[in-house]
Amino acid sequence: MTETPILSVSDLTVRFPIRGPFARKLGEIRALDGVSFDLAQGEILGLVGESGCGKSTLGKTLMGIQAPNSGSILFEGTEIAGRTPREARALRRRLQYAYQDPGASLDPRWKIGKSLEEPLIIHTDLPRRERLEKVREILSAVGLPAGHADLFPHEISGGQQRRVGLARILMLNPEVVILDEPTAGLDVSVQATVLRLFRELRDTFDLTYIFISHDLSVVRLMCHRVAVMYLGRIVEMGPVEELMEHPKHPYTQSLLAAIPRVNGPRVTENFWLEGEPADAAKLPPGCRFQGRCPHVQPICRQEDPPDRMVGARSVACHFAGDVFPPKPSTKEVQNA
Ligand SMILES: Nc1ncnc2c1ncn2[C@@H]1O[C@H](COP(=O)(O)OP(=O)(O)O)[C@@H](O)[C@H]1O
Ligand SMILES: [Mg+2]
């Protein structure tokens, strides 16, 4: 890993207006509320949190699909937020976003080779011979035979379609790839294969990943660092082992308490994270987790906690490091 971050995000904010009849603005959702982090070359940063906390919005904003209201995104030291679409396209070629099932976006009427060649026709002036060469190289990197270039998507399996989708993302030599829920909907055995492929591709192509997932056990396997999001803000971020062994934010503690364990007692219910997150359109003054936090104090209802550094960890809690999860109260069941 080099010293300068490949990506440096600061104070990124995205708000979505809520409109009523006649497009009258009734309020706004703070989908990203002052998000900051650095990404080192070669790093895999996990991004976790409940549905609706802003993970995809962050991915899309980095990609330029969503414009931020404010904040800065430095890609290798160059500002990429607030560019014209034309400038942004050139800069962002080296940043790619992989949707949950990248194979689903293949054109069913096109042979796979054509789908893979297309980004090179649009974005480069490589001659045909070199384009085909590149198609073969990338197919082989994702573990598919060169002959697959002559097949249509319906002639290959779902798993192979996913690989082709990934291959398409790799055609333009990206440096940072945002993987948005890349293992959702896969069964466990296929999941392992896909995760292995991500690791191999990272080594082969020198990639850096932002790995979005709500599956903490997958994040633990894959990532170096993890950022935990809650209602548009990173509430805790740090090295993956440390954060998962000793979570310091009460929200992280509750998320971890909710994951089933493979070896050992399994907690079947989310035993103390109660209720729904606050309404993202009407955040209360103070901490956004106050309504669900078992340790809530008067200050939490008044002041939004700043990010506190505790060792290598940043924690947005007034009592970071000084609160502990209560003992599980519900029954533990034997591992099935
Ligand atoms: N295009 C949009 N217009 C309005 N609200 C949106 C839009 N995209 C996302 N949101 C809202 O922003 C919040 C964050 O959504 P999202 O980033 O998709 O969360 P996640 O990927 O973590 O599930 C949610 O409250 C969602 O309803
Ligand atoms: Mg999402």
TrEMBL record:
Lineage, highest ranks first: Bacteria, Pseudomonadati, Pseudomonadota, Alphaproteobacteria, Rhodobacterales
**Presence of the UniProt keyword Transport in the record:** yes
Q: Which family does it belong to?
A: Belongs to the ABC transporter superfamily.
Specify whether Mitochondrion is a keyword of the entry.
no
Task: Supply the alphabetized keyword list.
Answer: ATP-binding, Nucleotide-binding, Transport
PROSITE patterns xrefs: ABC_TRANSPORTER_1 (PS00211), ABC_TRANSPORTER_2 (PS50893)
Q: How does it sit in the membrane?
A: Peripheral membrane protein
- The chain's coiled-coil residues are none
Q: Which domain of life is it from?
A: Bacteria
Q: Where is the protein localized?
A: Cell inner membrane
Q: Which NCBIfam families match?
A: oligo_HPY
Q: What is this protein called?
A: ABC transporter ATP-binding protein
Q: Where is this protein chiefly located? A: membrane
| GO molecular function (one) | ATP binding
Q: Where is the ABC transporter domain?
A: 7-256
Q: Which InterPro entries match?
A: AAA+_ATPase, ABC_transp_ATP-bind, ABC_transporter-like_ATP-bd, ABC_transporter-like_CS, Oligopep_ABC_C, P-loop_NTPase
Q: Which PANTHER family match?
A: D,D-DIPEPTIDE TRANSPORT ATP-BINDING PROTEIN DDPF-RELATED, TRANSPORT ATP-BINDING PROTEIN
